[in-house]
Specification:
The chain is of the alpha/beta class and 330 residues long. It is 32% helix and 15% strand.
Length: 330
């Protein structure tokens, strides 16, 4: 950057929900470090709500998966960005950067390390580094402020939950099967926590409605708050919770961005990949006794070994015990 203060920057992170939320500390750091800079953000339409009301962002440009982007690329090129931050760094975003024709700082993916760990179980990760920190390393000399994620909910979106009650939220969904703790385990866990005086809230998006309804029907006194991907309402309701218990999913990061402590259950994924709860008290529960983990860096539609021990052997009793200890320290 040659010591020059940039006037306008474009961040590109098209997907997914968690990845977009994990960029919020970097956005804040840019605004803090470069006086008067305008930060724009390019994202896929279905994840635009994650950054839509962020006051540190100048303009949010949202595109669909099928959008050819020719007209938008013309606009972005005319914005004359000092540089681009490509936090996705895939074929599509590299083509976008090439079309805009500005200096680009790409996110350096630990592709080789992930490949070695998934395929050969060779762990070349030197430490557990959050993706947020890897994002920041894309730009030389950028310093994070040590604070957590941010997600901004419009003032008009309010929760109608009774603030005098003790709530614990369960997020049983995840895009991939091997990242989902069994639904019947969530039911047993929820009933155990209900017995300790907590009311259980069930959170999920449009794709999670069936599983959320099934789990809620099995937990006495629970409320099913799954919705049609209304992220703002979900976050507003999450803020009433003492704790969120979830899979490795976008709602895990939504809870963290809402400032809520998180207990996350990891199946086929591992902490080394960096997609971990950031900036809030958290506990990750995983089965470290298996030689087949991780079987993927993103998740699978089925267990390749057929036993699904990575989740099946994390019993409801084990989770209840660890959640109880975790709650006592909050």
């Amino acid at each position: 950057m040659n010591g020059k203060n940039p006037n306008r920057i474009l961040i590109i992170r098209l997907s997914s929900l968690g990845d977009v939320l994990l960029s919020s500390p970097l956005i804040r750091a840019l605004k803090n470090q470069f006086s008067g800079v305008k930060v724009d953000f390019l994202v896929r339409s279905e994840y635009a709500d994650a950054v839509k009301f962020n006051p540190n962002i100048n303009v949010v440009y949202a595109i669909s998966r099928s959008d050819k982007t020719k007209f938008l690329m013309k606009i972005l090129k005319e914005n004359r960005y000092d540089f681009l931050l490509d936090l996705q760094n895939n074929i599509r975003t590299r083509l976008i950067c090439r079309s805009i024709n500005a200096k680009t700082y790409p996110f350096s993916k630990p592709t080789l390390q992930k490949y070695l760990l998934v395929k050969f179980k060779i762990n070349r990760f030197r430490d557990i580094k959050p993706i947020t920190h890897r994002y920041a390393e894309s730009l030389p000399e950028l310093k994070l402020d040590g604070k957590g994620l941010e997600f901004f909910v419009p003032l008009k979106v309010q929760s109608t939950l009774d603030s005098s009650k003790k709530y614990i939220g369960l997020c049983p969904g995840s895009k991939h099967f091997t990242k989902r703790w069994p639904p019947e385990y969530f039911v047993e866990l929820g009933n155990s926590l209900s017995g300790l005086g907590y009311q259980i809230l069930i959170f999920g998006g449009k794709d999670d409605k069936t599983i959320c309804e099934s789990i809620s029907s099995g937990i006495g006194g629970s409320l099913n708050l799954s919705n049609d991907n209304n992220l703002f309402q979900t976050a507003a309701d999450m803020k009433n919770c003492k704790l969120i218990i979830c899979n490795d999913s976008g709602l895990m990061h939504t809870a963290a961005a809402s400032g809520i402590p998180v207990v996350s259950i990891f199946g086929s994924s591992v902490k080394e990949f960096g997609f971990i709860p950031y900036g809030v008290p958290n506990l990750i529960l995983e089965n470290n006794s298996l030689s087949c983990r991780p079987c993927s860096h993103i998740g699978r539609s089925r267990c390749p070994e057929g036993h699904f021990k990575c989740m099946r052997e994390i019993t409801p009793g084990f989770v209840t015990e660890n959640v109880t200890k975790f709650l006592s320290g909050l």
